[in-house]
Amino acid sequence: MGLLIRGGTVVTASDIQNADVLIEGEKVTSIAAHIAPNGHEVIDAQGCYLFPGGVDPHTHLDMPFGGTVTADDFRTGTVAAAYGGTTTVIDFALHSKGQTLAHSLKTWHAKAEGKAAIDYAFHVMIGDLREDVMQEIPKVVSEEGVTSFKLFLAYKNTLQIDDETLFRTLRLASQVGALVQVHAENGDVIDVLVKDALSKEQVEPKFHALTRPPEAEAEATSRAIRLAEMAQAPLYVVHVTSAQAADAISEARNRGLPIFGETCPQYLVCDYSDYERPNFEGAKYVMSPPLREKWHQPILWNKLANGELQGYGSDQCSFNFIGQKELGRHNFSLIPNGAPTIEDRISILYHYGVNAGHIGLNKFVALTSTNNAKLFGLFPRKGTIAIGSDADIVVWDPEVETTISATTHHMNVDNNIFEGMTVKGKPRQVFLRGKMIIDRDKFTGEQGSGQFLRCQRFSRNVL
Ligand code: URP
Ligand code: ZN
Ligand code: ZN
Questions:
Q1: 3-state DSSP call for residue 268?
Q2: Taking the domain 53-375, which CATH number applies?
Q3: Of 26, 51, 128, 207, which is most buried with the most CB atoms under 10 A?
């Protein structure tokens, strides 16, 4: 006996059709205008869309950062993700100087195993590229199922690497079919600007943004692109925030280079003015790169709509206001960077993107799910509703309105940067490999039932 989702509108990155969907075991086995109930369990999806489960390519769960540890781990973070319609996360395994990549992955497997309520994969971040680490890279790709590496061009004296490391990683990764990601900001320049500001006692949260200008992002983005070009490697730029950085990506793509860019919900709906909130509230919005002036937003929307930006991640990195953000009450550079966004990633794109007319339903699915699955080697198992794909399906009610609030969200954190925003459209049910894990406002899944996913090698013709 299977599970039959009847009467919904099935939306993929390319099609929209009224159809019934039959799930047998963990897979979709039939999609057709009418499928006979034949003793199957039936879910009525009239009036709802069926979207593929969201694939969030950018999360930081249970991550030590900024002198503390993120408030959400794989237990709380993946449940919150499920409430929002995400059924797969790709989390960053941190690599510290002196360690092996194998150690990083072992650590991250231990964090996720037995806790994750949805499926998960890993990117591995490279902190130092010693000879032995270089030798590990091909093994990580072929044996560990991890096919993407992340490098930071910012966070001087902690995560930041130099151009030699970036260039060598790009060259090697491309030879073994892996995709390199960069956090693109010029950390050396930012370090000077931060020291200048602090020497003038400019300590409030807004100076976080003022010491990380868009030019620092644009410079690092352009540099990384040129290095990728010389290394003949593909490149994925995470969390693009500014028109200048996004233009650098468009320019490279127009020259035929395999350069990809991601943005995040916060950069589409929050802006620089949030840093000027009174009573240190601006600290909730401290993230890197920082929120920009509002005029960047229509440019980002336009680039999402026309395919110049392809990835859409949450950059979930939650810290409590009390006890964590407060670490920087007298010095903005000590405020832990990041915000809780995993739960609202999809509803923000739906409301401010689809309802507002910036993007259509196919593009919405491409951004929340398909493109991310394709870029990181999970497609077609994940990222679509198709025969043979995992039955990760969101039954989406387009009529329900929700006002986002830290008092009602499911993340383990005392603040929400989208607080007070009313969004229309939310998951009614969420299925992970055929099992209902969200039923209206109830979590019906199981902690620990999320599976580790091995990613395929990057394919140049993917998008
Ligand atoms: O502020 C942010 N984005 N925190 C998470 C780490 C990163 O840079 O992605
Ligand atoms: Zn980053
Ligand atoms: Zn991040």
A1: helix
A2: 3.20.20.140
A3: 51
Q: Which residue has the tokens 């580790």?
A: 452
* Angle (CA) 430 433 436, round 5°: 35
Q: Whose CA is nearest to atom 3 of ligand 1?
A: 288
Q: For residue 101, report the distance from its CA to the centre of ligand 3, in Å.
A: 19
Ligand nearest to the CA of 59: 3
Distance 332 CA to ligand 2 centre (A): 17
Structural tokens at position 248: 């650098």
Cβ partners under 8 Å of residue 340, min gap 6: 71, 72, 80, 316, 317, 318, 409, 411, 413, 415, 416, 417
Q: How far apart are alpha carbons 405 and 429 in whole angstroms?
A: 21
339 CA → ligand 3 middle, Å: 10
Instruction: Please state, rounded to an integer, the average pLDDT across all residues of the chain.
Output: 98
Q: Which atom of ligand 1 is nearest to the CA of 58?
A: 9
Ranges of each domain in the chain = 53-375
Q: Which ligand is nearest to the CA of 182?
A: 2
**Burial profile 302-314: b = 16 or more Cβ within 10 angstroms, e = fewer:** ebbbeebbbbbbb
What is the C-alpha end-to-end distance of the chain, expressed in Å? 37
Where b means 16+ CB within 10 Å and e means fewer, 66-87 reads: beeebbbbbbbbbbbbbbbbbb
Closest CA to 181 of 352, 4, 58, 318: 58
What are the backbone dihedrals phi and psi of residue 20, each rounded to the nearest 5 degrees, phi first? Answer: -90, 150
* Gap from CA of 300 to ligand 1 centroid (Å): 19
| Tokens linked to 455 | 């990613």
Write the pLDDT tens digit of every residue in 287-312.
999 999 999 999 999 999 999 999 99
Pairing mode of beta strands 311-312, 393-403: unpaired
Compute the distance between CA of residue 265 and CA of residue 204 in angstroms, rounded to an integer: 24
Cβ < 6 Å from ligand 1: which residues?
Answer: 60, 183, 287-288, 315, 317, 337-338
CA distance 431 to 51: 10
The parts of the chain modelled with pLDDT lower than 70 are: none
Which phi and psi (to 5°) does residue 433 adopt?
45, 45
CA atoms within 13 A on the CB side of 327: 16
**CA distance linking residue 182 with residue 234, whole number of Å:** 11
How far is residue 56's CA from residue 370's CA, in Å, rounded to a whole number?
10
Q: In the prediction, which pLDDT does 461 show?
A: 86
What is the distance in A from the centroid of ligand 1 to the CA of 7? 41
Atom 2 of ligand 1, residue of closest alpha carbon = 338
Query: Which of 315, 319, 345 best tests ligand 1's pocket when mutated (most atoms within 8 Å of CB)?
Result: 315
